[in-house]
Amino acid sequence: MDAESVYRHEEFMEQEFPVSFHILRHHELNVRKHAHDYIQLIYVNKGACTHHLQSHKYTIMKGDLLYIPPYVSHAFAPIAGRETEIVQLDFTMRLLGGIAEAGGAEGADGNGDAEGDVLEAFDLGKPKITVDVRTQFELEHTLALIGRELAERRPGFRQIVKAELVKLLLYVGREIGFGGEGGSVAAGIRPRRHRKLKEAIVYVNQHYTEELKLSDISRMAGLATGYFCVLFKQTTGQTFVDYVNHLRIRLSMRLIRESDMKIIDIFLSAGFNHIGHFNRMFRKMTGVTPSQYRRLAEGR
Known about the structure:
alpha+beta, Jelly Rolls, Arc Repressor Mutant, subunit A, seven-stranded antiparallel β-sheet, two-stranded parallel sheet
């Protein structure tokens, strides 16, 4: 995806309170394919329109709620002759973190992250839900209050917005099966996501000398590519590309130290395709070229 099609939260959100609220009519819909580095919740307040999410296309109408995770490509399109009004609530994971630190609602596993569980449930394959009439009323009331507090910015508005966002997500949680006397399906969501992500990382650790495509690995984890990249970096501390390069350079260093293989054979065995890229990555990680590293190893 081109850089100009990714919206950054720094461009229009406060650094310390990253959230924004908009009401858009049919002629204001973003018809250009785009993504963003933040979470977006869309509620259809009136009418209907078309939504394109990656390769999927479907109609959304009054009472539908959408979850758009970070870095996932999507766009809207008006339907001829149909009026539309959508409520767009944008916020970052950092804001959710602030909610948890402030004592947000307790999740199924008791760690105070119920709102995170709700978003993970969406990511497991429910980008859209249609809420019942009673919940529609509650959602619309909550969204209206969030919008009013953000517009008026009276004392304490940040705390109210955070509280209402938690309430909003918990209402949604009810719609997708959370809660009840028998416990919550949320208890299985995070372990399932973590297990799939862990399986993908283990696969990378075992196959990094082969050609690895980011799209294939993210599909293995059951996640959209952009969202997989976010979670991968949160888990490993590195981007996917940096992580793979790190593994390949470590193998190259061992082969240089412990074998008589030629450098050209080593970089191919480690999974690199171009000697120039290999040399740059090796020097970036070790501070010396492969040949210099071999001389230093032989001089021990």
